[in-house]
Amino acid sequence: MMRLPRFDYRVARKVRDAVKIMADNGPDAMFVAGGTDLYPNMKRRQVTPKTVISVARIKELNEVRGDGATGMIIGASVSLSQICEHPVINRDYPVVAAAARTISTPILRNMGTIGGNLLLDTRCNYYDQNYEWRRAINFCMKKDGEICWVAPSSPKCWAVQSSDLAPVMVALGARFKLVSTLGDRVVDAEGIYNNDGIDYLKKRADELLTEIHLPPAGSARAIYKKLRRRGSFDFPVLGVAASLDLADDGSIKNARLILGGVAPSPVRVNDAEQSLIGNSLDDDHIREAAEACYLRARPLDNTDFVMGWRKQMARPFVIRALEELRAE
Amino acid sequence: MAGRKNQKVQIQFILNGEQAEVAFAPHKTLLEVLREDLQLTGTKHGCELGECGVCTVLIDGQPILSCLALGLDAEGREVTTVEGMATAEGLHPLQETFADLGAAQCGYCTPGFLLTAKELLEKNPAPNRDEIKEALSGNLCRCTGYIKIYEAVELAAARMRGEQAEPARESIYGIE
Amino acid sequence: MALNNGNGKPRRVVGKPFRKVDARAKCTGETRFADDITLPRQLYAKLLRAPVPHALIKSIDVSKAQKLKGVVAIITGKDMPIPYGILPVSQDEHALCIDRVRFVGDPVAAVAAIDEDTAFEAMNLIEVDYEPLEQIASIEEALRVSEPRIHEYGIEGNIHKKVSLEFGDVEEGFAEADLVREDVFFYEGNTHLPLEQHAALAHFDADEKLTLWSATQTPHYVHRALAKVLGIAASHIRVIATPNGGGFGGKSDPFNHEVVVSKLAMLTRRPVKVTLTREEVFYCHRGRHPVLMWIKTGVKRDGAITAMHFRSILDGGAYGSYGVASTFYTGALQTVTYNVPRYKFEGLRLFTNKPPCGPKRGHGTPQPRFALEAHLDKIAEQLGLDPVDIRRNHLAPAYSVTANYLRIGSMGLGQCIDKLVEASGWKEKFGKLPYGRGVGFACSSYICGAGLPIYWNSMPHSGVQLRLDRQGGVCVQCGSIDIGQGSDSILAYIVAEVLGIDPFDIRVITADTDLTPVDLGSYSSRVTLMTGNAALQAAERARELLTIAASEKLGAPIENISFAERRVFDVENPETGVSFAEAVVLAESKFGTIGTVGSYTPPRSPGRFKGAGVGPSPAYSYSAAVAEVDVDAETGIVIVDRIWIAHDIGQSINPTLVMGQVEGGVYMGLGEALMEEMAYRGNRNVVHKFPSMLEYKSPTTLEMCDVKTILVEDPDPNGPFGAKEVGQGPLLPVPPAVVNAIYDAVGIRIDEVPATPEKVLAALKSKAQGKEGRYGPLGVPAVDWPEPSRVPTPAEGGDGKEIPPLAAHVKD
Fold first, then answer.
1. What is the pLDDT of residues C479-498, one digit of tens each?
2. Most buried of C122, C427, C606, C730 (most Cβ within 10 A)?
3. pLDDT tops 70 at residue C811
4. Maximum Cα–Cα distance for chain A, whole Å?
5. What number is the average pLDDT over the span C162-166?
């Protein structure tokens, strides 16, 4: 049986306790909420924290406040199942609930949290392996080794951003509240992700994600499309999050197009956005945006499916996403 | 509830409707505590990484994977395993229909399916086939092709609604 | 036709949907699987496995591990120097590698410690020094690299086995044909993925007797392997197979960990348990061989086959396992569905540095069946025939002997096809659905038990012992092991039918080498037919004793005594009778303790040539399937909406269980058709690409298609009550039906499974560019095939023997 290494387990009841324990224990400590990302990684010895601080039972992190008119604040420990079922989220931010419903399985969504999904460790099938397996390839750059086997000449790690909610949050312009003993800050979702499989978050390890702030819903419409082998369990190997704000004349006032699952961070495709803004959402502009996304999608051989096909899928997935938005 | 590394910790919780107390090494998962410290081996394991659904139990009525929950997290909560489904009055209707319809072949994934289905029927007493598929999509089975499982859930649901339901002829003899 | 049908009385159990005798225990958590058993003072074992694919072991240093607190014993290969293997011709495995490792995952040392954490820690303190050898990662490399050899035995280089058989003159057949077509196919390897990871617990008691509980499909063969390797008398070893949490063929070999815990238990005098991780289960493998195939068929204008030539090249992985049998199986069953008057088969198995392949559901036959059925689809199109008609019009006749000397009994394939065409709406759909939707058709057949045992002997393949006690209790004992298919229940149903009692009155004890007569195991779809016949014989013998005693007591003639509803009575005066329990008392008073035995040995097959041992069976089951698919031409993603399948079961002993096997077989075939594959990184030490449940893709509820099943009952005289197999056959037509449906949907041929979206899209693009709309292998490597053994067919008056080679040297 795969078992956890030994560690000290601390359950925090308040945010300030959680960050204090973290500050006291330094770099060998990690926060845990649902555990569905951290514990498998610990069992495979990808990470071996000496102290694990649970934030699952912190009351304030389990709250959902506000609505589409005011914007919403979602506590980071709210479970994915709650996100899927929350009436206000479903009414005012249906894309968030819809994307959450594509995450892993119904059972894992009862455990996994929104914060955990947004901060999900980057994934790679050279990395998400047992210690013994990784030893057989002499380890990789992300853990215990020197080289990135996906791109051996690369100085950086190419593990893949595999959260379904991350691209959606970037598309919606969400902001994240981070708390540490040094103080609080609120950052743009877009600004927290870093295009490096190891340092994939622009967030200090001692900072706790406490809240997700959704801006007022306004008139924008948004969609998320996920590519994966199976309708359950599987991480995205391509995610397309699109948000569009249309003027009364049907022209596009604002557009955001983000690709997930093809790089160490969500990829915002500015060229695609620019090709849409100011134009109508017709077939030509949709194809132009899809082409721009295709060019920016550079998946590598470290997830399910062959990489060439994953890249090709950017076109039809973006086209379908935008066509569905048009039909709304 | 802080666990020291090598010392056993003790928790109290409700296990299958009864007050329970158990001591274990603090890094053990609920799966290991149930199987090894409480001898409740009805909860199975297939990967211990959250990739198969075999170890599903209910915590406060919600299906969770016991391989990814710490034993410590059960403190003060209500845990239901397959051993807690039957009562002195008899089997749970789902256990009855799973057994009768051949929804349990090798039986290894069965406890997980039963508990997931139990929660489904508590939430939704009349699920349609698509809702059943969605609810059970986190439990893998390699024997049945799932079809007998759907039929068993549907039959149990009907009986739990008080209907005098019998298995469809097609599910036993096929189509003519 | 004389059937083993329990006197032709109206049946009260056989054919009825009784619950399985162990079903409730499986739904309450009471069933004890191997890892659920714990003994006092039990130690835990872990196996250290090689991180290199091919290397010599220079040294193993266990000193650091030995010093770890809690470590009780450490063993290495030299502690168990005797080799073993499932086939007598492939005794090429060691419990722990001695001087060489052959794949990433090959075990080299084992630790027993007070708990699993300690064993794990100690395992990683063992230092092994390896000297790397050139690795062989593929069929092409194995053919090219003759040194180093992965094994010192075999044909030459890394060729494990080569066979060549010719029945009749195929060239003559091709000359007679109106059309001769050749095609090349590839079937990727895949694995069983049982949800239960292998586990075993060994106990060496104070009397120096060994007991092993293990999740095995073949306790008898494990028993033999333990006796051989451990050097203790077989009579001092007891193997208890625990209910298997899924087998599918993956628990049919004797495994390293079973020998290791036994040895550790002997050394430590404490019980030792091992439970493999999921990754280790991938290393045990023994799954579907990747097979590259070439097929050439000659047909007349109406589709009648004049000759067939089939070649298969198998990537065997690092050990022999069942591989020699697998090789023959890839060439054996082509002839039992359609009439093939002349047939030639050439097969080759190679060693590579990957986990060993072996038997998975359908053992060696899904690959050639895929090739044959996709090939026939193309031939039908070329001849302008409906794919159904080309098959339906040329079925192999019932009760005939094929060109390769397989004796066909009952043959319900025609009925299967007719009902299937009707139910699926084939005629309204084929060629008529809108672009993107299509239907595909395929047939298949499978053995009902191998006609020959794995090791040569003339003893029964299955034995049943029945004990009746004066309280009316009936206990049936058999070496068979229930892997979920319901074999325990089959024993109870058959005995209950014969003795007129309820199946739940019967206590079933199985798979315990101390308590139960030998049954060879749950493989080759042999259990219902063979244990069923043995149980039938034992039950009929018991009934005879009770009949004599009851007849005396009731004063009724023997032929009037009937058994039903827990009573033994005079059929002419049904109220005159005794309870079943009273009948047992009468019989026990008259004859002494009532115990009977039954056994079953398959009929001798007509083939007498070398290689005739694989393929013969007491009976053959038949299946036909139609798949309806939806192909997204922009992505290549294929969704199988529904599969209709008709299966000739001979006679259902229990229709619910038959349905479950059909649906499960369709499910597993669907996974193989669409997504399952064992993939390795040849350029990275040949590591398995993703030995996990997450990345080895098996269908969830959301991928599983709707299944419409038709049961056809064409009783076979060799089956108990006419029953044939269902555990494996229904998988076989699924992959070809799916690719044939893809062709109907979008006009491309996917000649390789799994039919993944990138292959579909590549073929669509190729077609759009005006090239061949096909994805698949382009050819097969050149192989120096030996001169075939030539066997005249029965139609040519052959006697089943091969013609002595003309240039044979005279022996002195």
1. 999 999 999 999 999 999 99
2. C730
3. no
4. 62
5. 98
10 Å CB burial of residue C250 (0-12, 13-18, 19+) is: buried
Please write the tens of the pLDDT for every residue from A192-201: 999 999 999 9
Helix residue ranges per DSSP H, chain A: 15-25, 38-43, 80-85, 87-92, 94-101, 106-111, 114-118, 131-136, 165-172, 189-192, 270-276, 283-296, 307-327
Give the model's pLDDT for residue C806.
66
Mutate to test the interface with B, among A3, A8, A9, A17 (most CBs of B within 10 A): A9
Report yes or no: A234 at the C interface, CB cutoff 8 Å: yes
C262-321, pLDDT tens digit by residue? 999 999 999 999 999 999 999 999 999 999 999 999 999 999 999 999 999 999 999 999
The residue among C788, C807, C11 whose CA lies nearest residue C404 is C788
Task: Say what the pLDDT of residue C10 is.
Answer: 85
pLDDT surpassing 90 at residue B176: no
Residues of C in contact with A1 (CB under 8 A): 116, 275, 277
Question: Hey, what amino acid is at C734?
Answer: V
Touching B (3+ Cβ pairs <8 A), the chains are A, C
**C345 vs C180, C244, C282, C312, C631, CA distance in Å?**
17, 35, 31, 8, 35
Find all residues with CB under 8 Å of A298, minimum gap 6, and list them.
A262, A263, A311
pLDDT given at position B6: 66
Chain C residues touching residue B100 (CB < 8 angstroms): 19, 23
What's residue C412's pLDDT?
A: 98
The answer to whether the peptide bond before residue C754 is cis (omega within 30 degrees of 0) is yes
| Predicted pLDDT at B5 | 52
Nearest CA-CA partner of C115 in C155, C72, C145, C82: C72
Average the pLDDT over C440-453 and give the result. Answer: 97
Q: Which amino acid is at C379?
A: I
Taking the Cβ of residue C701 and every Cβ of chain A, the question of whether any pair is shorter than 8 Å is answered with yes
Asked whether the beta carbons of residue A5 and residue B27 sit closer than 8 angstroms, the reply is yes
Residues in chain A: 328
Q: Are C572 and C560 in contact (CB under 8 A)?
A: yes
Angstrom distance (rounded) from CA C340 to CA C299 = 10
User: Is the model's pTM score more than 0.90?
Assistant: yes
Q: How many CB pairs under 8 A join B and C?
A: 193
What pLDDT score was predicted for residue C76? Answer: 98
Q: Which two tokens stand for residue C67?
A: 């010093």
Indicate the residue of C22, C423, C666 with minimum beta-carbon distance to B145: C666
pLDDT band at C805 (very low <50, low <70, confident <90, very high): confident
What residues contact residue A147 under an 8 Å CB cut-off, 6+ apart? Answer: A138, A140, A141
What ipTM was reported for this prediction?
A: 0.97
Q: Which of C592, C45, C114, C528 is nearest to C274 (CA)?
A: C45
What is the per-residue pLDDT for B1? Answer: 41
Quick check: helix, strand or coil at residue C222? Answer: helix
In which residue are the tokens 């100690």 written?
A: C122
Contacts of C573 by beta carbon, 8 Å cutoff, 6+ apart:
C556
Nearest to C702 among A128, A129, A232 (CB): A232
Q: How far does B164 lie from chain A, in Å, by closest CA?
A: 30
> B88 and chain C: CB distance < 8 Å anywhere?
no
For residue A132, list chain C residues with Cβ-Cβ distance below 8 A.
Answer: 49, 51, 279
| Best mutation target, C694, C702, C705, to test chain A (most A CBs within 10 A) | C694
* Per-residue model confidence (pLDDT) at position B4: 47
Integer Cα distance of C501 and C469 in angstroms: 14
Cα B26 to Cα C683: distance, rounded to the nearest angstrom: 41
Residue by residue, DSSP assigns A264-283 as SS-EE-HHHHHHHTTSB--H
| In chain B, residues 16-55 whose CB comes closer than 8 Å to chain C | 35-36, 39-49, 51-52, 54
